[in-house]
Amino acid sequence: MSNWQDFLTAAGGQWHADQALTFTGQPDPGPQAPQLAVLSHQRLLQVSGPDSRKFLQGQLTCDVDALGTDTSGLGAHCNHKGRMIADFRIAATGADTCTLRLHHSTLEPLQQSLGKYIVFSKAALHSAADACIIGLCGAGAGAVLSEVCGALPETVDTLVPNDRGAVIRVGEDRFECWLNGETAADVLVPLLARCRLRETGYWDLLDIRAGIGQVRGDASEAFIPQLLNYQAIGGISFTKGCYTGQEVVARMQYRGKLKRHMYRLRMTAGSASPPAPGSEIFAAGARQSVGNVVFSALAEETNIELLSVCTSEAASSGQMYLDAQRQQPLEVLSLPYAITK
Fold first, then answer.
1. Which CATH number applies to 1-213+226-256: 3.30.70.580, 3.40.830.10, 3.30.1360.120, 3.40.50.10190?
2. pTM of the shown model
3. Would you list which residues are annotated within the binding site for substrate?
């Protein structure tokens, strides 16, 4: 483990097989304190070199050329069939460096896929294995974070680099910090004293409520970007030109009729654990499954929320279930954006 991982373990952190991090025995700084989650299930992949932007522009769904030195965005890398190998948040973190934050399970598939093409460019891939990624949210998150890290980004999707990494505003009161492993503990110490520690799944819950899906595990190469509503959240550029899988993605946008979309759902937890990515969704009157879970998280003590790619017909019916026996009903909740074609 790195220094910051050792520090979190000493602070009561428990590491799990799925890379999630939970805490026990932590003092509660009060209900008004900012929330802090260690995004231990996420990784950073850096693409560096004089050709890094040119290379990524031909590989990703987002417009890399449009990224400024103070902006970030969502994007994906697809195979030739237009199916996402991985999706991520991307930021220009240096003059010749772009950094992608993605789920740990898609890091290796993405490296392997990009590695087949990068040999022809003056660029290189580097996994920032020691990096520490944390999320802060809540009404006081900005004030606390500015005391520790200095200047903060003012608008959503912008970032401010500093000598310890970078701070990205991902929502009105939500921030991601991509920290250098060597100095991460210097940031964590003062933040832990001021913030309420939350489990990794709490940040997943916020992404679910924001309608931001993520390719995880066996879902790699299962979805085209539009199935995760990427056309609605700025994850696809339809004007940038060619990239791997672009023909399929563009054809679906302009000529196809998408019968499935990503929806936000809720179920009563009871004794059930949050369903794993890929779990099947069923509907009344349908013999086969009508969709699959993207990922899920505990909400309140009695509820679980999830994102699921399922048929529009099933979502409209309001009669969906997590099990083939139709014993665990799912309620469709609103998303903060309109689902478009």
1. 3.30.1360.120
2. 0.94
3. 176
